[in-house]
Known about the structure:
This protein is α+β, with helices and mostly antiparallel strands and 739 residues long. The protein folds into two domains: 65-158, Alpha-Beta Plaits, CATH 3.30.70; 170-390 and 526-733, no CATH class. The protein contains 24 helices and eleven strands. It has helices spanning 2-11, 13-28, 45-56, 79-93, 135-148, 160-166, 173-189, 192-216, 226-254, 259-286, 294-325, 337-349, 353-363, 365-380, 401-412, 433-449, 481-498, 510-544, 548-573, 592-623, 626-654, 661-693, 702-707, 727-738, and strands spanning 65-72, 98-102, 119-126, 153-158, 388-389, 421-426, 453-456, 460-461, 467-474, 504-508, 589-590. The strands form three sheets. Strands 6, 7, 8, 9 and 10 form a five-stranded antiparallel β-sheet that branches. A four-stranded antiparallel β-sheet has the order 2-3-1-4, with helices on both faces. It has a two-stranded parallel ribbon with strand order 5-11. The radius of gyration is 30 Å and the shape is elongated. Mean pLDDT is 87; it is low at 721-735.
Amino acid sequence: MAEAVFRWCYRHRWKVVVAWIAVVIGLSAAMSSASYSREFETPGESQRAHDILDTRFPRGESGDGVDVVLRAGQDVRDAGVRRQATAMLRKADRLPHVQGYVSPYDAPGAGRISADGTTAFATLRLDVSGFDVPASLIDDLRKLATETASDSLRVELGGQAVRNAESNSGGQAEMIGFLAAAVILLVVFGSVVAAGVPLLTALMALGAGMGGIAALTAVTDIPEFAPQLAAMVGIGVGIDYALFVITRYREALARGHAGEDAAMVAMNTAGRAVLVAGGTVVLSLLGVLVIGDQALRGLGIAAAVAVLFTMLAAVTLLPALLSLLGRRIDSLPLTSRRRRAKAVEATAEGRGWTFRWVRGVQRRPLLWGLLSAVFLVTLALPAFSLRLGSADAGNMPAETSSRQAYDLLADGFGPGFNGPLLVVADLGGVPGTAARDAALARLGAGLREDPGVAGVTPPRRNDPGDAAVITVYPRSGPQEKDTEALVQRVRQDVVPAAATDGIQVHVGGRVAGDLDGAAQIGDRLALLIALVIGMALLLLLLAFRSLLLPVKAALMNLLVIGASYGVVVAVFQWGWAADLVGLPGGAPVESVMPLLMFAIAFGLSMDYEVFLLSRVREHWLRTGDNSAAVAQGVGSTARVITAAGLIMLAVFGSFMLGDDRLIKLFGFALAVPILLDILVVRLVLVPATMELLGRANWYLPRALDRRLPRFDVEAPGPEPGDTSGDRAPAAAVAAKGQS
């Protein structure tokens, strides 16, 4: 079936190319009408607090707020400063989406002037939240702040809406990664055309994938930043898949195969491996659906769509392009024909330095296996200190207004004023005004008594009087453990003590929402890991007809991902060498990262495992010599897997060039497992463990073998001029492994 598709695409090249162009154009049209989601429900108690604010209070209570932070040279209560600040607030109140403000100079804003009188802050209430806040509104507020500021008055804007607007994710990251990949391909292939084909294939797949993601926004919620993550993964995977296929194609040409035969050899080997590897990545990404989080579901679907199109391009568009090019694949050479031929021959024979290295590992497999395992386990140790949460504005670049506002608030009032809690009371079950007053008084008193609370505002009631909100300012910053502990104490101790006579109290706000989201992800991460590993084991069992190889692959990938978690914790949470990646210091790891990192990194690691083991199995079926098969398999794939890994590193590394911490974290967290995979797993762990297991690598009970459906991940044709065929001896070798 697979070969029939490959051959049809090769023979109907123009139909395939035109069809792909039509698909890209058609799906790209959806990008203009895409409706990406910007706000998602937060699971848990914080969402219930938000719902009460949204349904029972005027617009502006449930949306984001913009903090206007004032710092005066003398005293913010000075008449001139007060006049300037009040004029700005009144102008801001007339802007779209601004639904009033709380001024430090009015009674509702009592407590918004610091003890030394040099700092004050006002809050503009918005009727929208998160990324729904228009960039034009933040621009208008910045202009007002600039116009208001003077030699005696400093004005900074803070809050999540301002932070979102100031986050720079490095819009040129995709282009930088793409150009770096082009340079690597030129070095590997030594030909402009050969290097250009993977880039063209990846671009076509990326165009179709981005259009497909845009089209899906009509039927499901896709986060606004999902296309960037999908592009990060899609570019790297798309180039890698084409790289593997073209490498096999050039090897087949060098061995004397004609154009179509060479293409079928490449597609029946690397092309089939693409189907298994790509399927593993797609299933891994779709595994995030079990978490039940709306934003994560959209991210997983978007990335899976991008990988699906790269896989389809590699097995349909690529054969058509090979048919169009034939031996002209090496046109526009950068090196001599002899040098290119020598490189292709060295790759095919697998007799370079990696072959000799693997032979050395095989002589002492237990020693090398233990050393590499201990190394990975050591790197993984910091992962046991992983703390999920969200980094606050103190991690923004120093020159941004949100960082300046954060520092001013922390200096004037304390760090907790940058992340207030919203304690929302539902008074519908409390009869009478007096009883409601008493209930709120008990709640406020309980909040003030907590040692972690720096300040508590008077309750703000809605017009019917059946709901109220109290703002609580912690003593600690939004990302600190003490604030997390305060949220738990308020929920578990303060609220139950005050929740009498029918009052229902919920703790919300952005800090509480982040904690609720992290708790949900932490609770279901084990389920995702089990599901993804189970699907990968089944796919590898079908592909390689072995019981031990899938288990070994899964365990090694778990080691790599655990080590990567440890490195991420050390750099992003503990702040070790944080300046090298452009971070001001440590902060909690964003709660979505471990989950997405596992799904993506596990799938990508399985990519390399599939391509490596498919070549090892090919040698095993021909020779029946496990040690030689492993050495030749690693040697013949080392150059191309290293190039593929470098391409991934270039693509993921380019996303660390921007200022946005989350995008940096994505790039770093996905680059680390790739680096460990190509340096430790492929060169040490794989040859060491496969040498120790010997023929047991290929064991599969006969009864299970008969019941499993067949899908040969490697189905190479006979060598040129060979009429005897090699399937019979291969089958005999396989039978030995099953005995």
